[in-house]
Amino acid sequence: MKAEALDGAEDEERSGNSELIQSVVITGQIIEALAAAGQPMRLTALAGQLGEPKAKMHRHLSTLKHLGFVDQDAKTETYRLGLKLVYIGQSAIDQFDLRRLAEPYMSRLRDLTRQTVVLSTPASGDAIINAVVESPNLVTISVRLGYRLPAHASAQGRLNLAFAPLAVQQRILARKLQAFTPRTMVDPAKLRERLTQIRQQLFDVSMDETLLGISAVAAPILNYDNELVGAIAIVGTTQDVHEPVDPEQLKLLRACTKAISLRLNSTAYEGLGIPNLREFIFD
Fold first, then answer.
1. DSSP characters for 59-109?
2. CA R_g for the chain
3. Model's pTM, two decimal places?
4. CB under 8 Å to 142, separation ≥6 — which residues?
5. For residue 244, which of 201, 193, 212 has the smallest C-alpha distance?
6. Which domains does the chain have, with CATH numbers?
7. What SS3 state is found at 110?
8. Alpha-carbon gap, residue 126 to 154, rounded angstroms
9. Under a CB-based contact definition with an 8 Å cutoff, are residues 129 and 144 in contact?
10. Which of 68, 164, 174, 181 has the fewest Cβ atoms nearer than 10 Å?
């Protein structure tokens, strides 16, 4: 009876905000931690990362396992995300189609810059190409759908990493970073400085970092919580897209991503002096 009373009290416990139920908050944190880890985790590691007692963490994991949201390896006793979350994730994608929302803005940006425009979405710190609108030029840069851009070596990847949970940033920056070209950024200290800069200016540039001769300038799409849900990049040759960024390209790019972000009720672009261009106003 005492244990049941404690569990009931835990469900009613509030977390700073009177509308938040602490047990639900912890459940969300567990799912996010398992997603960010990129590999199965032990109970002790999860409890330590979230700062919760092991007994309390075990109760949450047992419940999530019962519901199919978490799986446990019988041999190692480690926990990983369950298959049911795959179906839930797909349903979320079906209900929130960022590609469909972004494509009119991407086409307009392509027409204004005459460069290939790419939409990417977050994937554990990296970026995955979700949509491409190719430039009208005779010589054009083609980008393959589903291609995974490295977190440290691309403008879109660094944008995703800049807005990723701290655990994801630490995991990626702790590993050996591959130098794809002589210009690839592989110094963790410099990358950390760059991520701070990205969060302040809301754009990033990469020149010759994954492939010599190819460059990109990218800006984030942010939601109502100012969380990154995607990134739009202008991609071209280093002759057409370069650092320092062409002021007109940057103005158009950030006006584009600001317009999409405003559709998602984001306030992140306010105060940066980025104009609302009529070219990106759609009924």
1. HHHHHHHHHTSEEE-TTT--EEE-THHHHHHHHHHHHS-HHHHHHHHHHHH
2. 21
3. 0.68
4. 116, 132, 134
5. 201
6. 2-87 (1.10.10.10), 97-280 (3.30.450.40)
7. helix
8. 9
9. yes
10. 174
φ, ψ of residue 240 to 5 degrees: the values are: -95, -30
pLDDT tens string, the chain, 283 residues long: the values are 334 344 444 444 444 445 668 888 888 889 888 887 778 999 999 998 888 999 999 999 999 999 999 999 989 999 999 888 877 776 666 555 888 899 999 999 999 999 999 999 987 778 888 899 998 877 677 788 888 888 999 999 999 999 998 888 998 899 899 999 999 999 999 999 999 999 999 999 999 999 999 999 999 999 988 999 999 999 999 999 999 999 999 999 999 999 999 999 999 998 888 989 999 998 6
User: Chain centroid to CA 122: how far?
Assistant: 3
* Site of tokens 């795959």: 86
Structure tokens given for 200: 């302040």
H or E element that contains 212: none
Q: How many helices (H) and strands (E) does the chain have?
A: 10, 10
Q: E strand or H helix at 116, and its extent?
A: strand 116-123
Say if CB 102 and CB 260 are below 8 A apart: yes
Choose among 11, 69, 49: nearest CA to 170: 49
The residue type of 12 is: E
Q: Which long-range contacts (CB under 8 A, 24 or more apart) does 20-24 make?
A: 23/60
- CA gap 104, 98 in Å, rounded: 11
Of residues 165, 209, 216, the one with CA closest to residue 187: 209
Q: Under DSSP, is residue 16 helix (H, G, I), strand (E, B) or coil?
A: coil
Long-range contacts of 255-258 (CB under 8 A, 24+ apart): 255/279, 255/280, 256/105, 256/106, 256/108, 256/109, 256/219, 256/232, 256/280, 257/202, 257/219, 257/220, 257/221, 257/231, 257/232
Distance (Å, whole) CA 163 – CA 166: 9
